[in-house]
Specification:
Chain lengths: 777, 137
């Protein structure tokens, strides 16, 4: 069964890549048909959900990987099963949902392509057993989500939001890479299963602080924790199905998942508790608070997501059995209601044309099915029975109350955040769904009956699951205790129930609800207050600050790049030659050995001397010539002279090549030269002297290098090897050619690629004419 | 300026040069020669042809856009490079079979790729230059 699940994940990737081919065939059914794969995966996972025994993880080795340490091996345990079911289930619903939502959009191929790849990456992330593979999937989600958020790429805002999300999450991704490598080095393995089996925990190690900081940044950026939270509201510029998916089960929850995964190795230290509880608590509060001041339905939901993520981070930071249990349950709760609410928001947006809660009203009457699904989700969000949200919230309170040393901080923060959640739920319910006298009911574009089933199925299914799990939470016991075993590395029995008995926690809940309703009744003054505070914080508007930071960075980089890449060929050459000369000159002086041994000199041969003299004269002529053509031809003479020298010393292949290349070069030069203006003295005398000095110095250096090379043997020369193997293994007597096409074929491959690029460059240079785009050809 | 003797010689000479280039290509593994040298010689033949007849005649003669020749060469060399991977060997491993006493192998294919690429590159460059600078027209 587990193999089947992994194969299906691979299949999702394959389907994602195939979308450009499939969409013309499947037409408008693309979303619905592709949704079958995640649903199949969901079915497989559901089967495992019911059959997975306690304290076991199923491992699947694909035997495929980039490095021995980086194998794509997968593990299915309670934790990955919970996440995987949410990702695949909601993913299927979202695909079905987008089938209608995206029907009028251009670029649907791109949409499905990235959405399905994103889904695959997320599934890989939760099921992988290898930390390096986890990093790769993590980055894949960042990159695909960049394209999803920036789907409306012809508008400024989504583009900016996407870039922001990418930059921030990629920063986290880099941190994750470093952290993963450090963990792997400390533990000697990158496999989670081995790490778990060793009971590896390096909380006392001296490098723990560094690793934790890196992981913390990775999580905070991915899961939108304060102060990186600002990319998430921006990300709702994406089409609604994407928001629904990113916010509910994927992307932002990857950070939560990572924390849970690493908890056995890193959890429970002072740094872990302090940092996560503080950031989580702060994020939870800020998110809930800002959601009160918003008018856009999607924006409200985005801020409540931030709050929910803060809650989960805080719970994981507390690191008690109760808190981890609460975090897991809350992840399910949040995924269910947030996915549902976003889809409801999308339906409302499609059907009325607005998401402004001031304009919407009375939808309960005109869109009963959508409204009921939305109301159930809101119930879950505010943590009221009989939804699963109630159990989640009870567990959270339970965990907070049981935290002796910190309950004075976390309980008030949590209660305050929950009060605001209740208030915002009631507010949305009151403004959008209830029929009101003052507000006219908003006209619909379609009657609800006309909306296709797969459009409504998403929110309804999620609401029903939330309701069903709320009534019978016992189903989750097994899987939770399995997940807890791998998160806490100890056996935990889980018994969930809707009714916990009349206790402190229930009292807190009742208090929360009452206060929430109170805030709702006082919504005018509270709204004004929040508005004031938002205005005040807008001075420190983080997205803008971030954009400024990036903008300044780019200007800075541009300035300095201009200084280095000034575009003057002569200065490039000067830099290159001088630097080479200094480096090699230093090495030359540093190296041992003599320069020249008179005994080794062969007798002077007259024909060689003749060639050298002719070449030298040609060089002098080229330097002092007043005619360009003459200079070039004399350079050609030098080239031929060198070729003749090659021939004298037996390098026939080199000589032929030199002759031919020189000839072709001459012809092409002459062709071009013909069209250039006459020589003009463009350089001053001073710069000419400088150039001459550099040229002579480089020449001297080359001479010295050649002389010295005779006496430096850094490695055993390999010419003997080539000579021996050339015929035996390369089947050729021409060593030069065997080296070119066999021994050193990689070099040749690189060189011919450069040649091809050069030809392309020449073509573009000659043909590219920006002033006259429709040139004669 | 029309010079019938030169034209006749050059159009014959083109075949001689290309033939010689092919000869060098195939014998290159054991004696001086090889894909690169052969490629330059063949291209030089076309260059000569182009100087006498103009670049358009060269393009007519070879019938294919030289850019495609260039790409084909790169592709052939690349295929020769990766084909050992089909048999599970590292890329660029030389693989040989002996047909009628003549050993044939992927390095030869690679050399042919180099040959095609060099021809395509030089022809592409000089025809473009000639065309843009209105050489011979």
């Amino acid at each position: 069964m587990e193999q089947l699940a992994i194969i299906l994940i691979g299949f999702i990737f394959l389907m994602g890549l195939m979308v450009p081919v499939l969409r013309p065939i499947l037409k408008s059914y693309t979303g619905r048909i592709l949704a079958l794969i995640p649903f199949a995966l969901f079915a497989v996972l559901t089967f495992m959900f019911f059959t997975l025994p306690d304290q076991t993880a199923r491992l699947v080795d694909t035997g495929f990987g980039f490095l021995p340490e980086m194998q794509f091996s997968f593990r299915i345990d309670g934790l990955s099963l919970i996440f995987g079911m949410m990702v695949s289930g909601i993913g299927g619903l979202v695909l079905g949902y987008s089938s209608f939502y995206m029907a009028k959009y251009a670029g649907r191929t791109k949409f499905y392509f990235f959405l399905i790849l994103f889904m695959g990456a997320m599934l890989g992330l939760v099921f992988t057993d290898n930390l390096l593979a986890l990093f790769i999937f993590w980055e894949l989600t960042s990159i695909t989500s960049f394209f999803l958020i920036g789907f409306d790429h012809d508008k400024e805002k989504p583009r900016q939001a996407a870039l922001q999300a990418l930059l921030i999450t990629a920063l986290g991704g880099l941190c994750l890479l470093f952290a993963v490598i450090m963990i792997g080095n400390l533990a000697g393995t990158f496999r989670l299963s081995e790490l778990y089996a060793q009971g590896f925990h390096f909380g006392a190690h001296s490098q723990y602080q560094t690793v934790f900081l890196l992981i913390f940044v990775a999580v905070a950026t991915k899961s939108a924790q304060f102060p990186f939270h600002f990319w998430l509201p921006g990300a709702m510029n994406a089409p609604t199905p994407i928001s629904a998916y990113l916010h509910s089960a994927t992307m932002v929850n990857a950070g939560i998942f990572l924390l849970l995964r690493l908890n056995p190795m890193m959890g429970g230290t002072i740094a872990w508790k302090g940092a996560l509880i503080l950031t989580g608590g702060l994020t939870m509060f800020i998110g809930a608070f800002f959601s009160l001041g918003q008018k856009d339905l999607k924006r409200i939901l985005a801020f409540t997501t931030i709050s929910a993520l803060g809650t989960m981070v805080m719970l994981i930071g507390m690191n008690t059995t109760a808190s981890i249990k609460a975090a897991l349950i809350f992840f399910i709760v949040h995924g269910l209601y947030k996915g549902g609410l976003f889809m409801v928001a999308g339906i409302i947006d499609k059907n009325t044309g607005t998401r402004d809660i001031d304009k919407l009203g009375g939808l309960l009457k005109s869109m009963p099915v959508t409204s009921i699904a939305g109301i159930l989700a809101l119930l879950s969000m505010s943590g009221l029975p009989p939804m699963l949200g109630f159990i989640g919230k009870e567990l959270i309170y339970d965990a907070k109350v049981q935290m002796p040393e910190l309950s004075w901080l976390v309980v008030p923060l949590g209660v305050a955040a929950n009060m605001m959640m209740v208030a915002i739920s009631v507010l949305v319910f009151y403004e959008i769904f209830l029929p009101r006298k003052k507000k006219p009911a908003i006209p619909l574009k379609h009657k609800e009956k006309e909306l296709p089933g797969n459009f409504l199925a998403g929110p309804v299914a999620l609401a029903l699951v939330g309701l069903g799990l709320g009534m019978t939470p016992g189903w989750l016991n097994n899987i939770l205790s399995n997940a807890m075993y791998y998160v806490q590395s100890q056996t935990v029995e889980v018994h969930l129930a809707l009714w916990h008995g009349f206790n402190q926690v229930l009292l807190l809940s009742i208090f929360t609800v009452i206060m929430g309703v109170l805030i709702f009744i006082l919504r005018r003054p509270v709204g004004n207050l929040v508005g004031l505070i938002i205005q005040w914080t807008d001075q420190y508007h983080l997205p803008e600050k971030f954009n400024n930071l990036i903008g300044n960075y780019l200007t800075f980089a541009g300035k300095h790049t201009n200084r280095i890449q000034h575009g003057y060929h002569r200065y490039y050459l000067i830099t290159f030659f001088v630097a080479t000369m200094l480096l090699i000159g230093y090495q030359l002086i540093d190296a041992n050995g003599g320069w020249f041994q008179p005994s080794e000199g062969s007798p002077v041969r007259m024909h060689v001397v003749l060639v050298l003299v002719v070449s030298a004269m040609a060089i002098l002529f080229a330097v002092f010539s007043k005619s360009r053509l003459a200079a070039i031809i004399s350079m050609g003479v030098v080239g031929y002279g060198v070729a003749v020298l090659y021939m004298f010393y037996g390098a026939i292949d080199l000589a032929i090549t030199q002759f031919l290349a020189e000839t072709v070069l001459m012809v092409i030069f002459v062709m071009v030269i013909y069209h250039l203006p006459h020589f003009a003295v463009l350089s001053t005398k001073k710069s000419r002297l400088r150039d001459a000095a550099i040229a002579i110095a480089v020449g001297i250096m080359m001479t010295l290098v050649v002389l010295k090379a005779r006496f430096i043997n850094l490695e055993e020369p390999i010419s003997q090897f080539f000579a021996e193997k050339s015929f035996l293994e390369g089947y050729g007597r021409n060593i030069v050619n065997v080296i070119l096409v066999d021994f050193r074929a990689l070099d040749t491959l690189g060189e011919i690629t450069v040649l091809a690029l050069a030809a392309a460059g020449v073509f573009t240079l000659l043909r590219f004419n920006p002033l006259n785009k429709k040139s004669d050809r | 300026m029309k010079n019938i003797v030169l034209e006749r010689i050059v159009s014959l000479f083109l075949y001689v040069m290309v033939g010689f280039a092919l000869f060098l290509l195939f014998r290159g593994h054991s004696r001086p020669g090889g894909g690169f040298i052969g490629g330059i010689i063949a291209a030089a033949g076309f260059l000569l042809y182009g100087i006498v007849f103009g670049s358009e005649k060269v393009l007519e003669k070879i019938k294919v856009d030289p850019r495609y020749i260039l790409g084909t060469g790169l592709l052939v060399a690349f295929l020769a490079a990766i084909s050992p991977m089909m048999l599970g060997k590292p890329p660029l491993t030389g693989m040989w079979i002996t047909l009628a006493g003549i050993p044939l192998g992927t390095p030869l294919l690679f050399d042919i790729g180099v040959f095609i690429l060099v021809v395509g590159m030089i022809v592409s460059i000089f025809t473009n230059i000639m065309d843009v600078l209105k050489w011979n027209s």
